[in-house]
Design a protein that fits this description.
Layout: E1 4-8, E2 29-30, E3 33-34, H1 35-45, E4 50-55, H2 60-65, H3 70-76, H4 86-94, E5 96-101, H5 108-114, H6 116-119, E6 124-127, E7 131-134, H7 140-151, E8 154-160, E9 170-178, E10 181-189, E11 200-208, H8 212-217, H9 229-239, E12 242-246, E13 250-253, H10 257-272
Parallel strand pairs: 1-4, 1-6, 4-5, 8-12
Antiparallel strand pairs: 2-3, 6-11, 7-13, 8-11, 9-10, 9-11, 10-12
Length: about 280
């Protein structure tokens, strides 16, 4: 019913320069695992085994990561180091991986539209690897897939954020359906704090229905001259239905240096060291 997940990974990662001058930000390690691998694991856990990447220049390392490295594997075969590849081998064996390129940086809405050639006429998930979401019992995307099976409409993950952080996010407002679930009636991209309709910020997890592609095509550039998925989703909410879901789990903003360091410390102390 929903099998595909899109990863927009074409951004430059300028906040991590000079590290990202020749290395994709999505390949920066949280302890010993690249950031993007956490997202792919979350997608596969949710049953979204067809993984599509919207890449850009200098992103070949992502493609190589989700492929076999025969020379390396031959060198460590039969040694104690071979166990470190168990997780990524399972991902490669379980998922299928497709890649397409966003030639110009025109915003998240445009990146998702570029992914249409991978997704086709199907509902699909979107994961922004910058947002690392950790939940032991059930990943955020798996939680959202269950909701999609019930409501059959686009769903965005949201969380409450402090007032001084509002300007960094798309913000939603709407009608409460039940605990933790809101039918969206308003959605604003990075509003000034005194104009924000709520403190519910969209984070990097979406399930989108395929009609979103035609809506994006008709959506003019918005904030910063980019095609904003927030604007397209607002149109979809007015014409049909979009749900906002207050997910279970802990999110780290790994698009910022501070959030990246917090995520690394948390994973080391609570996951890696516990193995």
């Amino acid at each position: 019913m929903i099998n595909k997940c899109l990863f927009p990974v074409a951004g430059y990662g300028t906040r991590f320069l000079p590290a990202t001058k020749s290395m994709p930000k999505e390949m920066l390690p949280i302890v010993n695992k690249p950031l993007v691998q956490y997202g792919v694991e979350e997608a596969i856990e949710a049953g979204l085994k067809e993984i599509g990447f919207v890449t850009g220049r200098g992103k070949r390392a992502i493609e190589d990561h989700f492929d076999t490295n025969y020379e390396l594997e031959h060198q460590i075969q039969g040694t104690g180091k071979e166990k470190y590849l168990t997780g990524i081998r399972e991902i490669i064996d379980t998922g299928s991986f497709s890649f397409t390129r966003q030639r110009e940086m025109k915003g998240l809405g445009n990146a998702i539209l570029v992914g249409e050639r991978i997704v086709g006429d199907e509902p699909f998930g979107v994961i922004l690897a910058d947002d690392l979401c950790l939940e032991q019992s059930e990943g955020v995307m798996a939680q959202m897939v269950k909701l999609y099976k019930q409501f059959r409409c686009s769903i965005v993950a949201v969380e409450e954020v402090p007032e001084d952080q509002i300007e960094k996010f798309g913000v939603v407002d709407g009608e409460s359906i039940k605990e933790g679930l809101i039918r969206v009636t308003n959605m604003v991209e990075k509003p000034p704090r005194n104009e924000a309709p709520s403190n519910l910020a969209i984070i990097g997890r979406y399930i989108l229905t395929p009609d979103i592609f035609d809506i994006i095509r008709d959506t003019p550039p918005g904030k910063n001259g980019e095609v904003q998925i927030t604007d397209a989703l607002l149109t979809q909410a007015h014409d049909g239905c979009v749900m906002a879901y207050k997910f279970r789990g802990r999110r780290f903003d790994c698009g910022s240096v501070e959030g990246f360091v917090k995520a690394s410390n948390y994973v080391f102390e609570n996951i890696y060291a516990a193995k």
